């Protein structure tokens, strides 16, 4: 019953047929066993063998299904961790992040949603979508880093090591790579204020 209720693509028709054959052989053995014990025994063995084959095949399909779903879930989790950092950066630092990064992040989110929606309906397709989402999320991280570097070069003379520019860039990239998302508020000028002047301290 568990195999018949599985979301896996089990050959239910063959399983039902083998089960019915086994029940019929058993009923015949009860009814006619005294008259034809050898014949009934032979039919029972044949029906039992056919049922075992179908059960083994169904269990194999179920096991493959579960393994694939597990792979889908792990891949979704991996992609999600990368994507969250990019999405938070897009929301919080829109003036820094370019169109290519946003478009790639959205494509990753769409692929991730497809994988999640189809993980039980079609786990093999869902796995392909989750893997594609992972690749897109990695690409979005790379593009976001380029956007931040470009902003840093334009406004602070470039480099990770120079003054507040390096610190701010390091914080943003750290959030991207960790997938935790979000940054502390910036006092003084800060990103939100449009400049980097003033004597205010950065809060974390």
TrEMBL record:
This is TPM domain-containing protein.
